[in-house]
Amino acid sequence: QVQLVESGGGLVQAGGSLRLSCAASGRTSSTIFMGWFRQVPGKEREFVARISWITGMAYVADSVKGRFTISRDNAKNTVYLQMNNLKAEDTAVYYCGTSRSPLIVRPAYEFWGQGTQVTVSS
Fold first, then answer.
1. To which H or E segment does residue 24 belong?
2. Rounded Cα–Cα distance for residues 47 and 50 (Å)
3. Which residues lie across from 40 on neighbouring strands?
4. Among candidates 103, 102, 114, which has minimal Cα distance to 39?
5. Are the CB atoms for 69 and 48 separated by under 8 Å?
6. Tell me: the pLDDT tens digits for 78-112?
7. Are 98 and 33 in contact (CB under 8 A)?
8. Are strands 18-26 and 68-73 parallel, antiparallel or unpaired?
């Protein structure tokens, strides 16, 4: 089992920034990728970004490219999502998850955090 705890969400004005954190604990040795997804009520959970725990190679969705950056701190078992120039359409609950697959779809992710709300006012 892997436990994930997200933090850093909140209310921000359009154009502002937030940094989300996801701290992992438990059997993290089996984790290869950590990713961020987001979800709004009534819609599917959407891929945002993922990073290789070993190489640090990152992949970011086109919808947030140039505004969001994913990074990791292996010593702290923590992944970050730096979100800049936020827009109203970025409003969602953000979840981090772990995967052993490079696929950027929800079923490929095994463990999830509880989510953190991000609200962007326009």
1. strand 18-26
2. 8
3. none
4. 114
5. no
6. 999 999 999 999 999 999 999 999 999 999 999 99
7. yes
8. unpaired
